[in-house]
Design a protein that fits this description.
The protein is an alpha+beta fold. The protein has three helices and eleven strands, in the order H-E-E-E-E-E-E-H-E-E-E-E-H-E. A hairpin with a 5-residue loop joins strand 2 (44-50) and strand 3. The longest helix has 19 residues, at 109-127. The chain starts with a helix and ends with a strand.
Length: 204
């Protein structure tokens, strides 16, 4: 599932984000002290990622997660990959984008929902067990839409589930893919909280 889902993640970004330029994460900073862990949640620290000409993206990242930044081929935007420091429980990829044209309206709920429905339906028909897309709207913090699908034919060692979606964070869109062996895991809940509480600090 890992290889197939990463291929379709690239397609989904293209469907959703025509007109968005790539960004480069030129700098990463840690700010503040590790947060006191909430009940059932891992300890985390706030990290700030510099986005050229667009300020900072702040994410509260669990200290037990490792991080890599990737530049995929074909002119696609750079991506942050989070995963456990040990084991292969999940892979969590976040791509940060913004609108080239502020009037395009791709951050509006109706436009974003429609784009996610199109993206999820394409992925579902090609690879998933599901026959009907369950698109969830998340309003617990930053507005987001996401869905979870089950791979119909995973190979040994590949991930069985993918959760994919987009959250609006200030002037940015965070497009994410969460690959896992469990459909609903603590790591997924932590990842969704990270997106709900992400902050965009605009450039001065």
């Amino acid at each position: 599932m890992h290889r197939n889902k990463l291929h379709w993640r690239k397609l989904s970004i293209l469907i959703l984000l025509i007109g968005f330029p790539a960004i480069a994460f030129s700098e990463q900073m840690e700010i503040g002290n590790p947060n006191d862990p909430a009940e059932g949640n891992p300890q985390s620290i706030t990290r700030a990622y510099a986005i050229p000409s667009h300020g900072l993206l702040e994410l509260s990242v669990p200290t037990e997660w490792s991080e890599k930044r990737q530049q995929p081929p074909g002119g696609l935007p750079p991506t942050i990959l989070f995963q456990p420091k040990s084991g292969n429980e999940f892979k969590f990829l976040i791509t940060t984008l913004w609108q080239e044209d502020p009037n395009a309206g791709l951050d509006q709920p109706d436009r974003l929902r429609a784009a996610m429905e199109q993206m999820g339906t394409l992925l579902m028909r090609r690879t998933a067990v599901e026959t009907q897309l369950d698109l969830k709207e998340d309003t617990a913090g930053n507005l987001g839409y996401y869905f979870t699908l089950t791979d119909r034919a995973p190979k040994p060692g590949e991930f069985e589930y993918v959760t994919q979606g987009t959250f609006v964070v200030g002037d940015l869109l965070l497009s994410f893919t969460f690959l896992a062996h469990e459909k609903e895991s603590t790591a997924l809940k932590t990842g969704l909280d990270l997106l709900r509480n992400a902050r965009h600090r605009k450039a001065a």
